[in-house]
Each structure stands twice: as C-alpha cells, then as structure tokens.
Design goal:
The complex is a heterodimer of chains A (about 575) and B (about 210).
Chain A lengths: L3 E8 L2 E8 L5 E5 L6 E2 L12 E8 L2 E7 L6 E3 L2 E2 L3 E4 L4 E4 L5 E7 L13 E4 L2 E4 L14 E2 L9 H37 L4 E7 L2 E3 L3 H4 L12 E7 L5 E9 L10 E6 L4 E6 L14 E12 L4 E13 L3 E3 L11 H4 L15 H14 L8 H18 L2 E2 L5 E5 L2 E7 L3 H7 L1 E2 L1 H14 L3 E7 L2 E7 L5 E3 L19 H15 L6 E4 H6 L12 H15 L17 H6 L1
Parallel strand pairs in A: 2-14, 3-4, 16-22, 24-27
Antiparallel strand pairs in A: 1-2, 1-11, 3-5, 5-6, 6-9, 7-8, 7-10, 10-11, 12-13, 15-17, 17-20, 18-19, 18-21, 21-22, 23-26, 25-26, 28-29, 28-31, 29-30
Chain B lengths: L3 H9 L1 H4 L6 E11 L5 E8 L2 H12 L2 H11 L4 E10 L4 E9 L3 E4 L2 E5 L6 E5 L2 E11 L2 E10 L5 E7 L5 E6 L4 H27 L6
Parallel strand pairs in B: 1-9
Antiparallel strand pairs in B: 1-2, 2-4, 3-4, 5-6, 6-11, 7-8, 8-9, 10-11
C-alpha cells in the first residue's frame, strides 16, 4: 500500500483534495504563486505568494513537517500560529493567514482519487508534471478530486527565496552603513571646518613730518620704508574668511580710501596691507604740531555674517619746519643710527625746484658772470666760490640753535626747527643744517651731486662734480657765530679747509651720517609742493641787501688754492 | 622683497658714494621659499669685497638689532620675524635670514598671487621655481648684481605671469586648498548619497519574490 499525503481544501462546503505519494515526496510549497504545488486563489490576499512549505522530515517513522516561509500573515495549525516548523499529524488543519484558505492534512494508505488530466492546466515544471487545481466549482457542487503525478524532484524554491531576501537585507545594511559613514564624515567636517576668525593688528607712525609728506605716500620711497600704517590680519579660525576689506581715513585731512582687498583668507593665512597715504600738500601750511586720528575700517565675512570694526589710532603732524631726528622707541636706541633714523628725510628739504631757490641761483650766476655745468673741478670751484661770495655779500649769517629733546609716546628724540631754503633766503640767516640744505639745493640746480654730512652737533655740505671731484665746504663760515667771531665771514679758503678737516676727522665714524641727496630724492624722498612767490620782489630784496652790505669779496691769496680731494683720497684716508 | 639689500647697502656705503667713479659690484643672492599659505623664509647672501665687508661691519657688525630694525622697515609688506645674521669672515659673505608671513594673496578657487617687485627682471620658471636677476645702483659707483630665486610650493601648478588689477606684475598659480576639511565634506556627501541610493534600491527596487 502506497502512503500518500492528502491535502483537502476546505471552505464553505468546497472540498478539494490533493494527494501526493509519500515515497517520492520531498517538499511542497503552498501559496498564491503559480509555481506553488498547492496553489490557492490568487485573490486570497491572506496568503502570501510563497506562504508555507510541507516536507518530509523523516521517513521512518514517517514525519511530515510544515514550515512557515516568513509569510506576512502567518501560518496556523489547528488554529495555533506556528513559528518556524511544526510536525504535522493526520487530521491537522492548516490555515494560510488568519481568515485565509484552510487545508486538512491526512496520511492516506490508498488512493481514493481518480486522475484528472485533460482539463487541468499543466505547467511546465522541470522534471515534474504538476496538475494545478481546477478553479473551484460553483457552490453546492462537489469538486472533482485531483490526482497528482509524482512531483519529484523538488524544486529549489525555498533556497531561491532565501537568497533573494538575504541579498536584499545585505544591500539594506550596506546602504545604511554608507549613510552612517556619510553622516559621521559630515559631522567631522563640521568639527574641523568651523568658522573663520580674523585677528588683526594695526601699526602706525606716531608722528608725520609734514615736509616729507610725499615720502609717506610713496610705496617705492626708500624701498617702502616710510609706510604710515600697516594692518596685519590673520585667520585664526577653522573656516575661510571672505571679502576682507581694509580702508583708512584721517578726519580733517583724508576721506576713506579705496579698500585694500583680500577675496579670501585661508585658515592660518596672514595678509598684510601697508598704507601709504597720499597726503594733501596743505600739510606744508601746518606751522606747529597738529594732533590727528587715523581710522582703520576692517570689514570681512567670517562665515557668521558681515563684520565691521573701526580702529582708531592717534598721531601728530609735525609743522613743516619741525624735524624729529628719530622715531624709534627709546628702549630700542643703541646707536646714533637708531637715534637719528629719520635723517634721510632731510633730503625733502632740498627744494632745488623752488622758485625762490632758482631766483637765488640766478642771482649768483648773474653776479659772478655765470659758471659751467658742473662737469669738472673748474666748474665746481667756480660755482662754490661764487655762491659763497654772494652769500657773504648779502650779509647772510649763521645762527646757531640746538634741537630740543622731545618725547612722543615711547619715542624720545631731538626735534629741531628746520626751515626750507626759501625761508633762509628771505630770512638771510640759518642754522648749520639749514645752510647745508640751501647749499645742496643750489648745487643740485647747478647739476652737481650733493651730500649732507651730519656729525654730532653739526652739519655741512659736500658737492661733487660730474668727474668725481669732491669738495666740502663749511657753510657756516659766511659769518655769524662761526669760530666764535660773531659777524665776521671766514675766507673761502678757510671755509674749505675747515670742512675738509672736519670731514677727515669724522669720516668712517659710526657717528657720522652722509646723505646722498640725489640718491635719496631718486628713491622717493621728494621735496614738498610749495606756493608761488613774487619773484620780482625777491630779486629786489636780494639786490637791496647786497647794496646795503656791499660786495664783501673774500680774497683768496695766491698759491693758496682750495684743497681738492680726489675720489681715491676719500676712499683710502 | 622690494629693494632691501639695495637700500641697506645704500646706507652702509654712503661714505663710499662720496667718491667712487669706478664701478663696483656687489653680488647678492636672494632666495624666497614660500609655503602653501604664503608664509616662508627669506635668505639674503651678500658677497662683499674687503672694503665693503669692513663698511658692513662698521654699520651692522656690532649692532645686529639695527639690521633687524632696518630690514623690518623694508619688508613692511610682510610680517617678518625670526631674524638671523651670519658672517663668514673668511669669504666675506654675509647671510641674513628671516621668516615671514603674508607673502601671498589668495584669490579664491585655489588661485594664489605673488606680487613681483618692480625692480625684478626676467622670471624664468623651472617647475615651481622662478629665477630673476637684475642690476641696480646701490650708491654712486656701486651697483648690485642680484640673483633672485623664488621657490613656490611644490604642489603648485598652472603658473602664469600676469598683471594685477592695479597693473603690477604678479605670478599666479594654482594650489589645491581645503585639506582634510574638503576631503571629509566630499566623502561624507558621497557616502550619504550612495547609501541612500543603495537603501532605496533595496527597499523598492528589489521586492521579495516570495511575498
């Protein structure tokens, strides 16, 4: 007798039996999917497509097992929902989902069914012929019994479903893992990134000498040494600082400048903006110290929004005739070079293009009958002697005045009133440094190279012809307090000898400073713009003065020609 | 660096300028090495003759702080620090070094800009190194022969010799910026998008065939 598994479909009077020979049975699948051996109504939503599996757990003794295939609505045996697999006994009722189709399971010893073939739908299942249940007949009708051929060998349906589920689950895990990684990376980015943070320092000059205002406004002047303000910005934050703008104004003197711009400043990056203000020429109208305020506007976007800060720094404009020899903090000064680091700015006083200087030069030429172009020793001597004699003839005198110690902030220096050459011409007397500057201005006009020699407590000029002939002159020898002989002018010879001796004694000393006027002016320390003068009045004044004092010609004794120094002499001694 | 050595020498050798129709030459080698954010090191090597070396020593030999202050004035466009001076009396070579910040302007988009001082001539490039040279008067009768080596970051690319909006000569180059931050941003975004895509595909694109 052949054992058979019989599944009877039970529903509202409908009964269909499916029988399977146990001997060849491995497993049967129940569900809505057409591939299922026990297929329920497609419209029955309670059952999953592949709902449960019936298989032979053991053959001796016989054990038939029902396994739920992770169905959506669960599998019930005798009204109890099963978890995983259960062993079936003959007479058990199997329900696919609550309210779903119900089958009665039985083990039968002999077939009581007839084989139904022609009308059944036959599906092409590899190595098996499956007769699909005929659609349920109308109610009250008795459904024909269906006989199934051996459904073996079993199809690997369940493993296929398992691997698909497994792949899907794996993909889900991968996706979620990637998202978690992304979130972690973005979180770390937020920590690393952060906002920008701009720190800044503003450096500025405490004093500005009005006479040299052009030097402060020229980035190329002496290599940019005379900058007026510097703003150093550094991004100390973690993010980029954008649209950095720095502009300046000096109320009462200058309105806001066109901003210096840095489109972006990276973390740890430093940006330096140097301010060379184009001061107005009206600064030369300042006669005494004038306090002023530098305002620095710093704008930027640090990632939290637009930021704007205005820094204010106080400073002083010196009057046009006030000269501070140093600008270095007292604690830093260790040498004369430190104490007089402003000396190069004296070149701004050498106003060879000033109308008053040109008029004076023209008068010297007129009185002396003219002189050469400064090409050689002859031209140089002719010019210097004529000029010296003309100054003496005017009664021009040297008036000594020492500088006054001054303190501005932490800067202690010597401040001296130094007038422009035009003031000397009108005033007819001057300090040693003023007379030296006047000589330099006149020498420049004559096509000569000029130098200002500064030694402690004194200054005098040196003039050089184009062929290198160099002659110093004691400009204070014209009279006044020179040599303690008040009012008396020294001879031309004495003036040269005195300067030569002084230069010889001091040349090469660390306390001696020699300024190459043309070189410094070429580097950007240019004279200021000056107002017009009444030339005719000046000429008349000079003529009247000369008439009053008379042509006090200084006679140079024979064989006492001025000492002329060659370049090799200067270099080697 | 503008005219640093020129100015220094001009001051130091002013006395020589009084009388020196003969042409003297001072050899100066400048090297600027710049890192990716525009900070760097400046080295000046002055090769002097006997008299020049003596003048240098008179001016700065016993007062190195003066040299620092003088030079600081001339490198005002940078924030200079860490000064050092070495004198090789045997060969009369003076080497001055300093570190500096603020050597480059960043234009955004990975573009950096170096402003070439007006005196510099030439500008031959070899990889990330530019070579300039120029002769300039220091004082009357004294000229300096300058050889400038500008070493830009090794990772720099797309070099161009250009003009700034103010007409100054500039060297522009590209340098990747952002470092770890940008890397994290892009990796994070990419992982998020990929993860969302994979998850969506698994949820809706792969319906379980058994259900």
């Amino acid at each position: 007798m052949e054992l058979r598994a019989v599944l009877s479909y039970l529903r509202e009077g409908i009964s269909t039996k499916d029988e399977f020979p146990i001997a060849s049975l491995v497993e049967l699948t129940l569900g809505r999917d057409p591939s299922c051996q026990i297929r329920c109504d497609e419209r029955d939503e309670s059952a999953s497509r592949r709902h449960a599996r019936l298989s032979v757990g053991r053959r001796d003794p016989l054990e038939i097992v029902l396994t739920d295939l992770n169905s959506r609505n669960g599998t019930f045996v005798n009204g109890q929902r099963i978890q995983g697999s259960v062993k079936l006994s003959s007479g058990d009722r199997i329900q696919l989902g609550a309210g779903g189709p119900v089958y009665q399971f039985e083990i039968a010893g002999q077939s009581e069914t007839k084989v139904v073939t022609p009308t059944a739908q036959v599906m092409d299942v590899p190595a098996a012929t499956v007769v699909v249940p005929v659609p349920p007949p109308p109610p009250q009708a008795v459904a024909p019994q269906q006989t199934f051929d051996v459904p073996a060998p079993p199809r690997p349906a369940a493993p296929a479903v398992g691997s698909a589920l497994s792949a899907r689950r794996t993909l889900m895990y991968i996706g979620l893992g990637l998202m978690a990684l992304g979130a972690a990376a973005l979180g770390a980015y937020a920590l690393v990134r952060g906002h920008g943070s701009l720190s800044y320092k503003v450096y500025h000059q405490r004093t500005v000498m009005s006479v040299a205002y052009k030097a402060y406004g020229n980035p190329e002047a002496v290599g940019g040494r005379y900058w007026f303000a510097r703003t150093v910005l550094q991004n100390t934050g973690k993010g980029v600082v954008k649209n950095v703008h720095v502009s300046y104004q000096i109320p009462g003197f200058m309105t806001w400048t066109t901003p210096d711009e840095a489109p972006e400043v990276l973390p740890n990056q430093t940006v330096v903006f140097v301010y060379y203000p184009k001061f107005p020429s009206k600064l030369t109208e300042l006669r005494s110290r004038t306090p002023a305020v530098l305002e620095v506007k710093i704008e930027y976007d640090d990632g939290t929004g637009h930021q704007e800060h205005i820094e204010k720094r106080e400073f002083e404009f010196f009057g046009v005739n006030e000269f501070a020899y140093g600008s270095m903090p007292a604690s830093e000064v260790v040498s004369r070079s430190d104490a007089e680091n402003n000396n190069p700015l004296l070149a701004a006083y050498v106003t060879d293009e000033d109308q008053a200087v040109k008029t004076f030069y023209a008068k010297v030429a007129e009185v002396s009958g003219g002189f050469g172009t400064g090409a050689n020793e002859k031209d140089l001597l002719q010019f210097m002697k004529s000029t010296y004699n003309y100054m003496v003839s005017l009664g021009m005198t040297y008036s000594g005045a020492k500088g006054v110690p001054d303190e501005t902030g932490d800067v202690k220096t010597l401040v001296q009133s130094i007038r422009l050459p035009r003031d000397l011409i009108y005033g007819n007397s001057g300090l040693c440094v003023e007379l030296a500057i006047l000589w330099a201005a006149l020498g420049q006009g004559a096509g000569l190279k000029t130098f200002l020699v500064l030694i402690p407590g004194h200054a005098f000029p040196v003039l050089q012809a184009q062929d290198g002939t160099t002659i110093p002159i004691e400009s204070t020898a014209i009279g006044g307090s020179f040599g303690g002989n008040l009012g008396k002018a020294a001879s031309w010879d004495q003036a040269i000898e005195s300067a030569s001796k002084t230069l010889k004694e001091n040349r090469g000393k660390p306390t001696t400073d020699i300024l190459d006027v043309r070189e410094l002016q070429g580097m950007g320390i240019r004279p200021p713009e000056l107002s017009e003068i009444n030339r005719a009045e000046l000429v008349k004044m000079l003529d009247d003065r000369r008439a009053k004092h008379g042509p006090r010609v200084v006679v140079v004794p024979p064989r006492q020609q001025p000492v002329v120094y060659r370049w090799w002499w200067w270099r080697r001694r | 660096m503008r005219r640093i050595p020129l100015i220094l020498l001009s001051i130091a050798f002013a006395a020589a300028a009084l009388a020196a129709p003969q042409l003297e030459t001072i050899n100066i080698d400048q090297t600027l090495t710049v890192d990716p954010v525009g900070d760097g090191v400046l080295t000046l090597k002055l090769t002097l003759d006997g008299e020049q070396f003596q003048m240098w020593q008179q001016k700065y030999g016993q007062n190195a702080s003066l040299l620092k202050r003088d030079m600081s004035q001339y490198v005002s466009q940078y924030e200079a620090y860490g000064w050092d001076m070495q004198e090789n009396q045997m060969d009369r070579i003076v080497t001055v070094t300093c570190k500096f910040k603020g050597g480059m302007l960043y234009r955004g988009g990975g573009i950096f800009e170096f402003r070439v001082p007006k005196a510099w001539r030439g500008g031959t490039r070899h990889d990330n190194t530019y070579l300039f040279n120029f002769v300039q008067p220091v004082a009357d009768g004294v000229v300096s022969q300058n050889n400038v080596t500008l070493i830009l970051p090794a990772a720099a690319s797309d070099f161009s010799d250009d003009k700034s909006e103010t007409g100054d000569r500039v060297i522009r180059y590209h340098l990747p910026v952002g470092g770890m931050g940008a890397w994290l941003l892009w990796v994070g975004l990419a992982a998020l998008v990929a993860g969302a895509g994979v998850t969506a595909f698994a949820e809706w694109g792969m319906k379980a065939p058994a259900r």
